[in-house]
Amino acid sequence: MTALWPFIHQMNPDASTIAAGAPIEVDLSPIADGQDIKVFWRGKPIYIMHRTKKQIEEAQKVPLSDLKDPATDQSRVKEGHDQWLVVIGICTHLGCIPIAHEGNYDGFFCPCHGSQYDSSGRIRQGPAPLNLAVPPYAFLSDSKIQIG
Amino acid sequence: MSGPSDYNPSHPALQWFERRLPILSFMHSSFVAYPTPRNLNYWWTFGAILSFMLALQIVTGVILAMHYTPNADLAFRSVELIVRDVNYGWLLRNMHAVGASMFFFAVYVHMFRGLYYGSYKEPREVLWILGVIIYLLMMATGFMGYVLPWGQMSFWGATVITNLFSAFPWVGDSIVTLLWGGYSVGNPTLNRFFSLHYLLPFVIAGVVVLHVWALHVAGQNNPDGLDIKTDKDSVPFSPHATIKDMFGVSVFLLLFAWFIFYMPNYLGDADNYIPANPAQTPAHIVPEWYYLPFYAMLRSIPNKLAGVLVMFSSILILVFLPWLDTAKTRSCKYRPLAKQFFWIFVVVGILLGYLGSQPPEGIYVIAGRILTACYFAYFLIVLPLLSRIETPRPTPNSIAEAVLIKTGSKKTPMVSTMIAIMVAGGLLVGGAQNARAQEQETPPSLKWSFSGPFGKYDRGSLQRGLKVYKEVCSNCHSLSYVAFRNLADPGGPGYSEAQVAALASEYKIKDGPNDQGEMFERPGRPADYFPSPFPNEQAARAANGGAAPPDLSLIAKARSYERGFPFFIFDFFTQFQEQGPNYVDAILQGFEDKPPAGVTIPDGSYYNKYFPGHAIKMPKPLSDGQVTFDDGAPATVPQYAHDVTTFLMWAAEPKMEARKQLGFQVFVFLIIFAFLMYFTKKKVWAEAH
Question: Can you tell me the distance from the alpha carbon of B453 to that of B661, in angstroms, rounded to the nearest whole number?
């Protein structure tokens, strides 16, 4: 069995791919209220959404019982930075890229199979089983985050 | 392998060889003397058709691999260069791409034939299971092959399919990372898919050998499902089966050639002429038509893991078929109930395929669930139950007797089958086209000089179109797959080499580095490609309000629209495939100064009647009198649009005239060949019937 391992493990990401997946820093100051940007980290699109008051309120007042994959809005943002939603823009159904600011929940809409996410990136409707994943990130200052 | 062989080579050299490796007598007993049931119908020629297709796919594939570059940055371009620059590259690429569809078409006929005539029943269980394995390998090979051109559908199809494995608990994500060789579909994925796509056809060939071996041990099934008992029941494989198969293959080739030479993009997806873009998902991700029924089952299940399991089991269930259907009578010909359920099953399969091409919304989801249930019910409830309650009609005592009692009415099921198959194929293809539809006004169908089987490019129109491109479009749009030299190619705008050299020298081309290590500019040469107006995509995006103007080399093939039922069926016969040109022409003329009431267009966008969503970033590019033509053609927007579209169609399909010309010759040859085969077959079989 162990003799097989090199033949299987060679398929995993190689050293250069892993190195290229190191953390990145993103400056948030150019993103206005209600706007979003998409950055790539490890070949994955990451949405950074500057949420409006309305979006935050909507996300916070949804009862957990309405959610397919229950999670509070607080658990999906960093404390004191309620206006910033950082999620991996890959639909948890089959990996398409949802479109921001579309759909019925002020969040994301996946054009492939119609999954809809709310302004907290939580799955609300459609075939996707889980909420949009939150990548590992931290605030370096009020207007700068490090992803990874 | 069974079969009496009286093979006795007379030449001493052959006798010497035969004593050391008896391969000649082996071939003789398997493919010459081998007894084949004398009542086989034409559905049995699909075995030969499939062998032929496998060989052809391997030959064309090996050749294409000599010219293809498996690298995420180069793959798309290398496929285009195969089509444009390699001698007969367009032919080989069309054969291979269309060949995949034809291969699946033939395998579905072959499988349904086996299902109808009970070819999976004792003693052919292993033969059937080997067939299921071949089918699974074909699906994997076809999927990975579709990824190689690295267009939008390639990339996103690969993303969706590899993500299926993430549904498995605990190990799912590790499996997907292992498949990708990275954190998303990328260059490592493309490389390993290329390697495996090259390998698997040879694995298929190996399993086919086992499949044929098992066939020759058990003997062929036949429409009456009877065993060969006496010599009267069989005819020797050669020349009887050989000539019949030759006729079958030549008729099949007529269909194949229709696609290769006249409708090469009919079965494909326009989106795959757009290079892969990891930042943008196409509006509808649709697999190739041959996966649609399984895709429909996947999507109709609301739970992701359950959906994946249902999809895999829908194929794996075929392995257990011999033990699910335990009826003693093999052929549905003598099973009145099973026959009806078989046709219902065929219809279920077709409808599932249709649903797979539709957006998963509302009624389609409900219908998908019902049909998925029907699919499994056929195997798990209907067949086991029928084997217990059905009273089959008495079968003839022997194949010879079955042949004698055949009456004129035997032709009816053949006709209804043909109709069913035609409708099936039509619906599938139409469904695939529907899926790409946008809710918008359809561009008007215009008259093009290049449409139809004898269509040619209008030289004057090409030259005027080039002028419009040079003076207007080229300010923002690149044309990076077209070289200046192409303007002198046969079937193109018809410039002389000197004219091309003069035209090229008007351009400044960046070259270098020189001996001092610096880049420099020099006048263009015929071998250079049209330079791009922007140094890179980001610059193009920044200069154009956030939307990068697309490269125009393939635009006439990369855009399409829904044709709808029943036009897509007529399109197959009328060879209509001008959706791209119609769309490009319509966009150029579809600008309106004021959007209609109730429609708001964001700032920096313009209203266009035919653009999906209507808000286009390109301002109205053409206005009357903007470009003057030397040949006196009117300086109007409709004329500009028509000419530049003709030019862009040529840019996308520069070998079209050669393709249609060769197509005509091939058709004349194939029709004569098919007739010769038919009459030879009649003569050979004269005494057998």
Answer: 9
Beta-bridge partners for B511: B520
Cα of B443 to nearest chain A Cα, Å = 24
Express each pLDDT in B37-86 by its tens digit: 999 999 999 999 999 999 999 999 999 999 999 999 999 999 999 999 99
pLDDT in tens, B187-240: 999 999 999 999 999 999 999 999 999 999 999 999 999 999 998 899 999 899
Calpha distance B315→B294 (Å, rounded): 9
Q: What is the pLDDT of residue B659?
A: 96
Tokens matching residue B554: 């393939």
Quote the CA–CA distance of B71 and B160 in Å, as a whole number: 20
Contact A43 B163 (CB under 8 A): no
- With beta carbons less than 8 A apart as the criterion, state whether A89 and A132 touch: yes
Within B395-496, residue ranges assigned H as helices are: 399-404, 411-435, 459-471
Question: Among A24, A18, A45, which Cα is nearest to B177's?
Answer: A18
Q: Report how far residue A92's alpha carbon sits from residue B498's, in angstroms, rounded to the nearest whole number.
A: 58
> Contact at 8 Å (CB) between A107 and A120?
yes
The reported pLDDT for the residue numbered B345 is 95
Q: How far is CA B27 from the centre of its chain?
A: 34
Residues in A closer than 8 angstroms to B160, CB to CB, are 94-96, 112
The structure tokens listed for A126 are 């459609």
Is A113 considered catalytic here? yes
Round to the nearest angstrom and report the end-to-end CA distance of chain A.
34
**Rounded to an integer, what distance in angstroms lies between the CA atom of residue A116 and that of residue A108?**
6
Residues B28, B32, B36, B41: is their CA dihedral positive or negative?
positive
pLDDT (tens digit, 9 = 90+) per residue, B2-12?
Answer: 445 567 888 99
Which among B183, B283, B305 is the nearest to A13, CB-wise?
B183
DSSP E strands: which ranges in B8-129?
Answer: 35-37
- Give CA–CA dist A44/B356, Å, rounded: 27
- Report in angstroms the alpha-carbon separations of B143 from A86, B159, B185: 34, 11, 14
Asked if the C-beta of A96 comes within 8 angstroms of chain B's C-beta atoms, the answer is yes
B363 in reach of chain A (CB within 8 A): no
Q: Terminal CA-to-CA distance of chain B, rounded, Å?
A: 27
Examine the predicted complex and report whether its ipTM is higher than 0.95. Answer: no
3-state class (DSSP) for residue A54: helix
Q: Please report how many Cα atoms fall inside a 13 Å half-sphere around the Cα of residue A30, on the Cβ side.
A: 4
Is A132 an 8 Å CB contact of chain B? Answer: no
Measure the CA–CA gap between B454 and B147, rounded to whole angstroms. Answer: 33
Residue in chain B closest to A89 (alpha carbons) equals: B279
C-alpha torsion angle, residues B37, B43, B49, B50 (rounded to 10): -100
Helices B411-435 and B567-574 meet at what angle, rounded to 10?
100
- Please state, in angstroms and rounded to a whole number, the distance separating the CA atoms of residues B171 and B164: 12
What does each C-alpha distance from B125 to B214, B217, B321, B328, B478 come to in angstroms?
A: 9, 12, 9, 14, 58
- H helices of B46-88, in order, are 46-67, 75-85
CB-based contact B177 A13, cutoff 8 Å: yes
Buried b (16+ CB within 10 A) or exposed e, B270-303: bbbbbbbebeebbbbbbbbbbbbbbbbbbbbbee
B447 phi and psi angles, rounded to 5 deg: -90, 125
How far apart (Å, rounded) are the C-alpha atoms in residues B669 and B667? Answer: 5
- The rounded distance, in Å, linking the Cα atoms of B195 and A117 is 38
* pTM of the model as a whole: 0.89
- Of B108, B646, B152, nearest to B352 by C-alpha is B108
- The region that residue B40 occupies, defined by phi over 0 for left and psi between -120 and 50 for alpha, beta otherwise, is beta
Tokens of B211: 């499949």
* Dihedral (Cα; B227, B229, B230, B236), 10-degree rounding: 30
Residues 49-88 of chain A whose Cβ lies under 8 A from any Cβ of chain B? none
